[in-house]
UniProtKB/TrEMBL annotation:
Organism name: Vreelandella titanicae
Entry annotated with the keyword Oxidoreductase: yes
Keywords of this entry: Oxidoreductase
Family (UniProt): Belongs to the short-chain dehydrogenases/reductases (SDR) family.
Stated name of the protein: sulfoacetaldehyde reductase (NADPH)
Keyword Amino-acid biosynthesis: no
């Protein structure tokens, strides 16, 4: 396999690993030799994914947690360090999209998007930072990575997408600020901004795909594996190469 062995001896923590981009990224990084910590709320799905990875001679740790609670985020990172002894890569892939008319959308849905898309990412990153910086000093690769999954909705605002836009703009901005803060310490921060992708995201609330197609028309959606490949490209580059931002749209999406 291309790039095989590049991540041997490293540990990657992936949130949102129970489905979609998080799941695909966990599989891809495990294929490349990383031990993977699988984090999400749905333990049964995590266990199925761990079985798949271990059946392919990979190493996986299941951690069922709600990372929108800072204490849970702290527990997750502590458990990874206790089990694997290090942390080299953090992929913040957990995401929630509940778009719709602002007058009719419940405030609870807005709060949930802020909690999952921003607070969870913020809490995990905060807890992981000391361990990622330590990994830089103890790894033959001499580098560590944080990959945040944002969205093209973090670049372009649209009607009925206000709070999802707000969270994803925030992720993109925070990633760039962290990149500047930690680049001299060989801790790379990167953001991936996918367009329409065939995951459960559009199924999290009725009418979201119809809303998308009313603006952009029908498109052949990206696969989660396409975004996982972008994440793998980022983290397998040598220390001298930092991929700051990747935008990936379906060919059909304007």
């Amino acid at each position: 396999m291309k790039n095989a062995e590049k991540l041997n001896g490293t540990v990657a923590l992936i949130t949102g690993a129970s489905s979609g981009i998080g799941q695909a990224t966990a599989i891809r990084l495990a294929d490349l030799g990383a031990s993977v910590a699988l984090v999400a709320r749905r333990q049964d799905r995590l266990e199925s994914l761990a079985d798949r990875i271990t059946a392919a001679d990979g190493s996986a740790l299941v951690i069922a947690a709600d990372i929108t609670d800072n204490h849970e985020a702290e527990r997750v990172v502590d458990q990874v360090i206790e089990h694997f002894g290090r942390l080299d890569t953090l992929v913040n892939a957990a995401g929630l999209m509940l778009n719709g008319p602002s007058v009719e959308s419940p405030l609870e849905e807005w709060d949930r998007m802020v909690d999952v898309n921003l607070r969870g990412l913020m809490y995990l990153t905060k807890q992981a930072l000391p361990h990622l910086l330590q990994a830089v000093t103890s790894s033959p690769r001499a580098v560590a990575d944080v990959v945040n999954i944002s969205s093209v909705a973090g670049r372009i605002a649209a009607p009925q997408v206000a709070i999802y836009n707000a969270t994803k703009f925030a992720v993109t901005a925070a990633t760039e600020a962290w990149r500047q803060e930690f680049t001299k310490q060989s801790l790379r921060f990167s953001v991936i901004e996918p367009g329409a992708t065939a995951t459960e995201l559009f199924e999290q609330k009725d009418g979201q795909w119809e809303g998308f197609t009313s603006m952009f028309g029908e498109v052949e959606r990206l696969h989660a594996e396409d975004i996982a490949e972008a994440a793998a490209f980022i983290v397998t580059n040598p220390r001298r190469v930092a991929i700051n931002e990747i935008v990936v749209r379906p060919t059909d999406q304007p």
